[in-house]
Amino acid sequence: MPAERIGMRDAREIIRLKFSCVSTHEIARRLGIARSTVRETLKRVETAGLAWPLPEGMNDEALAAALYASRRSKRGHRRIAEPDWATVHRELKCKHVTLLILWDEYIAANPGGYSYSRFCELYRSFEKTLSVTMRQTHAAGERLFVDYAGDGVPVVIDRLTGEIRMAQIFVAVLGASSFTFVKATWTQALPDWIDAHVRTFEAIGGVPELVVPDNTKTAIVKASFYEPEVNRTYAEMAAHYRTAILPARPRKPRDKAKVALIALAVGFVGGYWHGGFPYCAC
Q: Quick one: pLDDT band at residue 275, thresholds 50, 70, 90?
């Protein structure tokens, strides 16, 4: 990207110092401006054929005209065929694809196109405009996301008296296929939590490489970004089934977005039941 236009006082000083054999780095340090700005100004000086001392009578207006006579807007400056950066970004996600390969394809179709370094620079600029949200991809059988949904669902445990008890809804979702297993338990205590996992493994007919729970106290004794402390019984269950526990990071809901969406849906339906249409455990 072209450097911003600088004041003519700084421009004169850059020219003077450069012809006094001062390095670009030192010029930038002395004047308190970016080295890229110094380099850009010196390129313009060379293009304009200027030297120090400047011609007698060259005022600021004349110097500006000499340095920036050919300056154009950012859009007008780019007369070279522009790559489709969205396509470039998408293709970079493919295996073994690099910017060099994509540049080779681009330059083959546009022989007068950007150099490789400029191509990379423009792509990085485009990349900064993208959302920081990263799409998660999951390999089959790699991750199982588990959580409890909402505040529970009312269940009629006695039709004669109408007695209602709240049931907790355990939700498990496979990352790749989104296969979902839902089980109602009376509590979120450790025995129900472990039993729900066992039922889940039976339902999916196997065990994933990783189980990703939320930081519920039942599963995680101490939440941490780096070294979460897993409940001992929960860890022993994982060892028995030869899987591993990978808790979602604290305050990072996207780590468990799969199960969160299902839990939200279950919680919504649970709220509907709570409004007058509860389950009947009979």
A: very low
Q: Where are the domains of the chain?
A: 8-74, 80-128, 143-280
Q: Cis check for the bond before 250: say yes or no (omega within 30 of 0).
A: no
Longest dimension (CA), the chain: 107
Which two structure tokens, joined as six digits, stand for 178? 């989104």
Cα distance from N-terminal residue to C-terminal residue, the chain: 71
pTM exceeds 0.85, yes or no? no
Contacts of 255 (CB under 8 A, 6+ apart): 212, 248, 249
Q: Distance of CA 68 to CAs 29, 35, 42, 78, 207, Å? A: 24, 19, 12, 17, 67
Which spans in the chain are helix H? 8-18, 24-31, 35-48, 60-68, 74-77, 85-91, 99-109, 116-128, 190-204, 232-240, 257-274
Cα–Cα distance, 80 to 107 (Å, whole number): 11
Q: How many residues are present in the chain?
A: 282
Q: What is the pLDDT of residues 214-223, one digit of tens each?
A: 888 888 888 7
Topology (CATH) of 143-280: Nucleotidyltransferase; domain 5 (3.30.420)
Report pLDDT digits (tens) over 63-72.
888 888 755 4
Both structure tokens of 175? 């990352």
Q: Which tokens hold the place of 4? A: 């911003």
> Is 220 within 8 Å of 213 (Cβ atoms)?
yes
Distance CA 247, CA 143 (A): 11
